[in-house]
């Protein structure tokens, strides 16, 4: 199998899942998301989080850590700096608070 055949084959495999998993939410997805959030909130309020196995809790924590890392990486890319935001002259307003 040559590289072009392999690339075509793997490209169709990736496109098959990317088309479904990476699409933006449609209007019909919002009621489902609201219902799922409501169910999750009710389960948390009822204390069902105590019934989760340690393995599942660890996997959930791992997913939450991954999401946090992607968020912070996006912040670093957006700031174009590892620490702090760049100061743009004229973009910040100085407000002096004077109370009578």
Automatic annotation (TrEMBL):
UniProt GO BP: proton motive force-driven ATP synthesis
Primary localisation category: mitochondrion
Keywords associated with the record: ATP synthesis, CF(0), Hydrogen ion transport, Ion transport, Membrane, Mitochondrion, Transport
GO cellular component, one term: mitochondrial membrane
Keyword Mitochondrion listed: yes
Keyword DNA repair: no
Compartments reported by the entry: Mitochondrion membrane
UniProt xrefs under InterPro entries: ATP_synth_F0_gsu_mt (IPR006808)
A family per Pfam: ATP-synt_G
GO molecular function term, any single one: proton transmembrane transporter activity
Family of this protein: Belongs to the ATPase g subunit family.
Protein name, as recorded: ATP synthase subunit
Source organism (scientific name): Protopolystoma xenopodis
